[in-house]
Amino acid sequence: MAAVPTNQNRSQAPADRRGRGTGGPAALASWSAPVLWRFAVIFGLTLPALPICAELPAPVNATSRSGQFAVRGLPFSKPLANLAPTSAVSYVRLDPMLLAVSAETVKQALLFALDLRDQWEGGILVTLHPVEKDGEEIVVASVRYADGWRYRMDIPELVDRRRLIDSIVEVLLLEMAHRGAGERRLELPPWLVPGLAAHLISNTPERLILEPASFTLKKTKFKEELAALREKLRAGAGITLDELNWPDSRTDPNAYEAAAHLFVRELLRREGGPRAFASMLSQLRNHLNWHIAFLRGFGFASLREADKWWTLSLMQFAGRDSLALWSPAEVRAQLESILATPVQVRHTTNQLPVTINVPLQRILQEWPLTEQPALLRQKLQHLEALRLRSPQPVVELVNEYHKILSDYLAARGRTSAGKAQAPASTKLLLTETIRKLDECDLRKDAMSLTPPGTPVLSNSVRK
User: Domains of the chain: which residue ranges?
Assistant: First the structure.
């Protein structure tokens, strides 16, 4: 640790860079040790033995305004070139004092986005170390003590700006989730950190991460920029909810980041969205599976319902071309799931209820007319989401189911006028609707018996 060639320049610039009238080791000794190492690496010089350790300043300790972040590292001195960083530079040089301010800035932006007050419990120790290799990772660790959880971040002095923001958001979310938790280390949804980090970056007018020689020219009115996000989503094949929840090595990182950004943005835009995020984080400690905390926090009945909502949100934001189309077999499986209704029945009075799937025709025949509209409207919403991912000509069958249910709801509203007992006209409507549904079911069942590429029968070729 006496000398690290890859370190940033931490000492003062030499008094005379031109070195007129001097030469040899005496001239070199007038230069600071980190500067000499840079020139040695660039020009292949052989340096004499120098008391480098004496040149390095003492480590600096800095604490953020709220006291949650404690940063320790060597101070950053004047850079070799007096150049201010630009937005095109992805790497930032870190200084302990400025990093403490930056971490607090990210924290306040996160609290504002989630509509939360600052009630932190676990301290975060941040250690800056010299760069050892290219692409060095940021280490985020959580440790359980007798009085609660504590967190540690080990960060290289030169790091990618986006990775740094992601890591600060991650450790802050972990701290929020572990409040009042036991000894079990909690797991965050994989889309939460990249999605929230991208949302903060796109919705914060000031620079989140400060660095030496950075400054603000002028404060202007800020407007969230969504054009680039929309183009990224349109360029990709569309990320499904399953791919958001379980990314793998085949997932495109850029497409995943864009999808996570939109997913978090749309969740925040839901009614009570920020409170739902806080609810999900607080429920993580109560469930081994984070999916349950997600569903309960945001009020989704199932992942299937959440997937339908995500499909509609993606289509409305980026257009239908941004969605990945499913195969006919996948569409058929989704159709069967949408049309069937799970109900609990008892075969005997002493027997526990069992869940069975009841076909839609039976629901129309046996359920009271006053209880049918709510269920049918829900199925119409699911069919609308399904047809966005259905290829031709399978989408025609999905549209036919949608039309049958829409026509039934509209006609039943005109004939029954909300009465519990169905008049004769409603019985005729029911008979005709069931007949059409039976015909569509035959076409649906034929989808699994025909080889790939065989067109699905349309209405014009029915018997």
Answer: 1-56, 58-81+89-185, 229-324, 326-461
How many angstroms separate the CA atoms of 237 and 326, rounded? 11
DSSP 461: G
Summarize pLDDT for 204-249 with one digit per residue, the tens: 866 787 766 554 444 444 456 677 887 777 776 668 888 899 988 8
User: Residue 245 has which token pair?
Assistant: 């929840």
The full length of the chain comes to 463
| pTM flag (> 0.85) | no
Higher pLDDT, 364 or 31: 364
Least confident of 5-9, 159-163, 288-292, 346-350: 5-9
Cα→Cα distances 355→340, 342, 390, 400, Å: 12, 6, 29, 28
Q: Specify the pLDDT at position 33.
A: 47
Runs of H (alpha helix) within 203-327: 227-235, 241-245, 253-269, 273-283, 290-298, 303-318
Query: What integer is the mean pLDDT of 251-267?
Result: 91
Query: Please, which contacts does 438-447 make with residues 24 or more away whose CB atoms are closer than 8 Å?
Result: 438/361, 440/397, 440/400, 440/401, 440/404, 443/397, 444/332, 444/335, 444/336, 444/397, 447/328, 447/329, 447/331, 447/332, 447/394, 447/397
**CB neighbourhood size of 128 (10 A):** 23
Burial class (CB in 10 A: 0-12, 13-18, 19+), 288: exposed
Ranges of H-type helices in 320-449: 328-339, 360-366, 372-388, 394-416, 424-446
Taking the C-alpha atoms of residue 298 and residue 377, their distance in angstroms, rounded to an integer, is 21
Dihedral of the alpha carbons of 188, 191, 196, 197, in degrees to the nearest 10: 100
Burial 190-201 (b: 16+ CB within 10 A, else e): bbbbbbbbbbbb
Beta carbons of 95 and 155 less than 8 angstroms apart: no
Q: What is the pLDDT of residues 392-449, one digit of tens each?
A: 778 888 889 989 998 888 887 765 554 444 566 778 888 899 999 999 988 888 875 4
* CA distance linking residue 99 with residue 410, whole number of Å: 61
Cα-trace Rg, the chain? 31
Helix pair 273-283, 96-114: axis angle to 10 deg: 110
Q: What is the mean pLDDT of residues 72-86?
A: 59
Sorted by sequence, the CB contacts under 8 Å of residue 44 that are 6+ apart come out as: none
Q: Is the peptide bond before 391 cis (omega within 30 degrees of 0)?
A: no
